[in-house]
TrEMBL record:
UniProt keyword terms in alphabetical order: ATP-binding, Cell inner membrane, Cell membrane, Kinase, Membrane, Nucleotide-binding, Phosphoprotein, Transferase, Transmembrane, Transmembrane helix, Two-component regulatory system
Chain segments annotated as coiled-coil in the UniProt record: none
Transmembrane segment boundaries: 182-201
UniProt name for this protein: histidine kinase
Domain Histidine kinase: 261-460
Amino acid sequence: MRLAPRTLFGRVSLFLLLAVVVAQGGSVADFLISDHAAHMGIVRSQVFEQTEATLRLLRATPPALRAGVADQLSLFTLCYSLDAAPRAHPGGEEDEEAGHLQERLRNLLAPYAAGPPRLELRDQADHGCDRYRAVSGLPFSGRPDHHHRFSGLLLSVPLEDGRWLNADGRIVIPSYWEMAPLLPVLGMVLAVLLTAFFILARETGTLRRLAEAAERLGRGDGGTRLEESGPAEVVSLIRAFNTMQDRITRFMQDRTRLLAAISHDLRTPLTSLRLKAELIEDEEVAAQITATAEEMEAIVRSTLDFAGADALNEAPRVMDLASVVESLVDDMAELDLPVIFQPSPRIAVSCRPVALRRAVRNLLENALRYGGCARVCCRREPGQAVIEIADDGPGIPPALLDEVVKPFVRLEASRNAATGGIGLGLAIARTVLLAHGGDLRLENRPEGGLTARLILPLPAA
């Protein structure tokens, strides 16, 4: 299964989206890490300063009242208690961060403590002090939501009366993914992507117009030059396409004029040859000369048809395909030819009706010549309309199915027009279909005979 988009717009958009997500994700991660470190530093400083203020107050309080004062100063995220032993485990100097905090705490509390304080850092802590007191205006006075995580630190400071002031601090770790500051980041990412998508859609639109112009040129509808606008690389590509289109158009025009001139120059002596044949007294010789002249005229007409001059000059029209084919079949049926049109749905196609009728007639005549009969139907397939012509003939060797549609290729090698034409019928039909943006495909039927599929594109909805 292909995961990458098929279009240039889709692939570049996906690459751009991934690049922006990775870049912004890295920026957000860096912000969260830095913000977490700053948040922990600020809260720890507040714990130290609050403990310093508590020590100053306890120093001025009679020893008998100190336990009650410590209890009254306890908040949800900072609990004080006076105990006979320290609760913080000594050590932590091997941790650079803990050692730095220990040194800072020792310098800050030295005037009030009876000895060196102890510090213990904890990665996890419970949801706060049971002796909760919310005091407006003081740090740590709010009760966080139940879904917040906690980190902790434990301070034990020795007092002059032999007891220890134990401070149990809970540090609230914010839920960063619910923070409002992420909204501006998401807004910026969305703005960048929308701007990039707009520019990308505009530039890929130029390439899409170039592809459509190339498709029209392949159908013989070229001649309209594209506007040379956009980035330098796209302008260079459009300029090269316009130059190529001009050269192809001039080549086609020169070829048409050349063939028209050859046709005109050949018809004059052929007409003269037929007139002279009428003056010949030997009727058999006269008939042979006349037949030769007529065969040469047929070759000239077929060559001009193959050149596609009419197919290129005729204006396309939207018509019902079944009606076009049925009218041709009716004309041939009136001549007592075994041609049958099977009921078909109405299918609107853009076509050059004269050229299309010529292509269908060539295939019908081919089916009658080699198969003795022809059955015709029209069907709609995804994105295309198909005319199917089936016969009961011997079919074509599989190795030659792609060869017989080439100019002057015949299965009968004698080159006798009476036994198989001059080898341009199928080539003319394929040329007409290619000029419509379609194709001609030949398939042998399992039960015998040949099916010719004339494929035409359906108009865009």
